[in-house]
Write a structure and sequence with these properties.
two-stranded antiparallel ribbon
């Protein structure tokens, strides 16, 4: 799983060669030593371009009351899939990354949220997968956040997808 999510960037486009676990642990140590209270939010989004889908996953480190920064992973996949399948793929990507970094978050007792670019209002198409996505994330033991509060997916990941 680590190999699939090998390349990470920040919002300025700087690419990191370290593993995301090392990047995140270094960032957490730095921010905690500066006295910040932290929360990590992980979310994914995607955009379709012809017969390709661009997926983006964001790990947002929130300094409570002091701003935030993010690590981003992008991937282009040649596939033609339904909206439902694509939305569930976004959630799977978020959970895979969360599972990969959870030991670091647990070690430092950092609050975690998994954000889904899924609207809870039934008049939006994405709401068709709300129950499945929520069940999957909660079943893994993580806190689930949907739109409009899912900024890691609907703002950060959306910006680079």
């Amino acid at each position: 799983m680590e190999e699939k999510y090998k390349t990470w960037k920040n919002l300025n486009g700087v690419t990191y060669s370290e593993s995301i676990k090392d990047l995140l642990e270094d960032a957490i140590c730095r921010e905690l030593s500066a006295g910040h209270e932290l929360k990590v939010c992980i979310g994914s989004d995607s955009h379709v371009y012809g017969n390709e889908v661009n997926y983006a996953t964001a790990i947002v480190v929130v300094r409570k009351g002091k701003g935030a920064f993010a690590f981003l992973h992008t991937e282009r996949v040649k596939e033609k899939i339904s909206l439902k399948e694509r939305l569930l793929n976004e959630v799977v990507r978020s959970v895979e990354v969360t599972y990969n970094v959870y030991s670091i978050l647990d070690l430092y007792r950092i609050d975690l949220e998994v954000h889904a670019d899924i609207n809870s209002a039934e008049d939006h198409k994405s709401s068709m997968v709300l129950k499945e996505a929520m069940g999957y994330v909660l079943g893994m033991g993580y806190k689930f956040i949907a739109k409009p509060y899912a900024f890691a997916s609907s703002s950060c990941a959306d910006w680079v997808a």
